[in-house]
Write a structure and sequence with these properties.
The protein is mostly beta strands. It has a single domain, classed as Elongation Factor Tu (Ef-tu), domain 3, CATH 2.40.30.200. 7% of the residues lie in helices and 54% in strands. Strands 1, 2, 3, 6, 7, 8, 9 and 10 form an eight-stranded antiparallel sheet that branches. The chain has a two-stranded antiparallel sheet with strand order 4-5. The longest helix has 9 residues. The chain is globular, with a radius of gyration of 18 Å. The two termini are 21 Å apart.
Length: 125
């Protein structure tokens, strides 16, 4: 059976679904542990584990001024708590969880898209 790649189909942020631009090439990091090795004076070492959040980056979503999409995304970016998120990939795989928008939302009017970057927790459904 072949592995199916391709763009994300859609992303739902706090109950509102956005189409994802096919040329955006979003990435998803599920988070987890970061491992660092620190040396001791006797040439042994310790492994230091630190937790890191999941990241979803380079997500260009359709931005419709008639729906107020840019304002909706800006309001989410200014939230002080996480909100629900669900990502649907073109092969039907769904990841959901809770996140925040980490960077300012940037709209590209020529392409009718807005770029977002998310941090939080994602699990495969």
């Amino acid at each position: 059976m072949a592995v199916i790649g391709g763009p994300w189909e859609s992303i739902t942020l706090d109950g509102r679904t956005f189409a994802v631009a096919q040329d955006s090439g979003p990435t998803l990091d599920l988070g987890g542990d970061t491992n660092t090795i620190e040396m001791n004076g006797n040439e042994t070492f310790r492994i230091i584990k630190e937790k890191r959040p999941g990241l979803a980056e380079s997500i260009n979503v359709e931005s419709d001024p008639d729906r107020g999409d840019l304002e909706f995304l800006k309001d989410l970016q200014e939230e002080t708590d996480v909100f629900p998120v669900s990502v649907t990939k073109v092969n039907g795989t769904v990841y959901s969880g809770a996140c925040i928008i980490t960077d300012p939302v940037v709209e590209n009017q020529d392409k009718a898209t807005a770029e977002i970057k998310l941090a939080g927790r994602y699990t495969k459904q």
